[in-house]
Amino acid sequence: MEGIKPVRFVGQASRYKDTGLTQKQQVEIIQKFKDGEYNTLVATSVAEEGLDIPSTDLVVFFEPVPSEIRSIQRKGRTGRKHAGRVVVLMAKGSKDEAYHWSSNRKEKNMFRTMKNLELEPEAPVAEKLPVGDGNLQDGAGGQTKLVDFPAQQTQEPKTSAVVKVMVDQREIRSHVVHTLEKLGTDVTLTTLEVGDYVVSDRVGIERKTAEDFLSTLLDGRDLFGQVSDLKRAYDRPLMIIEGEGIYTARQVHPNVIRGVLAAITIDFGIPIIFSRDEEDTAALISVIAKREQVDSKREISLHGKKTASTLPEQQEYLVSAISEIGPVVARNLLRHFGSVERIMAASREELMKVELVGPKTADRIREVVGGEYKG
Known about the structure:
Blueprint: E1 6-9, H1 23-35, E2 40-43, E3 58-61, H2 68-75, E4 85-88, H3 95-116, E5 136-137, E6 143-144, E7 164-168, H4 175-182, E8 186-190, E9 197-198, E10 204-209, H5 210-219, H6 223-233, E11 238-242, H7 254-267, E12 272-275, H8 278-295, H9 311-320, H10 327-337, H11 340-345, H12 348-351, H13 359-370
Parallel strand pairs: 1-2, 3-4, 7-8, 10-11, 11-12
Antiparallel strand pairs: 5-6, 7-9, 9-10
């Protein structure tokens, strides 16, 4: 675009195909920006704080943030010498809007609290240490009186309801936990038999990074078993897949991944939400917890309140517990043989007569049923 002289401005850390800038390079770029050699900084979050460029009059952010502190810091990048403008881009109807209104509300609460703590206009502010009899003395030996706050200002500001989240201990190393605490969430670490996060008596959340999700498929771990347990334990189960690159694994064809996602969503009835990163995941969990505990007035419960499974559900669960068998194949087997007992007694050839049951699945069933226990 004519008139635009951009320059890249990032942090010191280097990532894949992206080399960071040294501190010296950062200083040089800022100076050239001040001198007019560049007139546009294309920056990461490293430019949100610590930069003093008084002449900046426009800042464009490609996404909002839920933190009022970061939001204020962002706005402070412009309008220092004269009126400036801040533009925040967001997708209508997405979590971007929730972030925007969340930070706005927190900013208003912060400024309201600060206003309640302001001193009377005519009262001088004493910034010296007390000496002798407890009065304050200035450099000339005169005395400055201590300022009393009005009685009404000693009251603690009203705080919003604190939501609770129960987190499996294995998640302690995740930045999600620390971000939840920064968002004001009351985090309780415990051992969860099912899921990674519990936000109410009916909502349990299984969190998987994109890498972990792919590893589950490659390593042969029982993903459907985890999903089935989550479905049985909670009336409103949820899976969050965090990060990008879910379709980039060369060892797994994209259609296989799509099939697994379809099975989780349609066959098990578990919604899947994709999050950008750990901070995004924490913000989602916080919003869900607030909806459940504050808006819906639901209590948090470690084990959930899933209603008792029907006999067909228990039968499907037993059959689908065998790896290589999803809920659709389990139902096909039960319809064909009529009972779990007959499935377990069926031969390899009889099993392969069932729709969607191939040699690999039939062999796996016979291995589980007839194999010697070596535990």
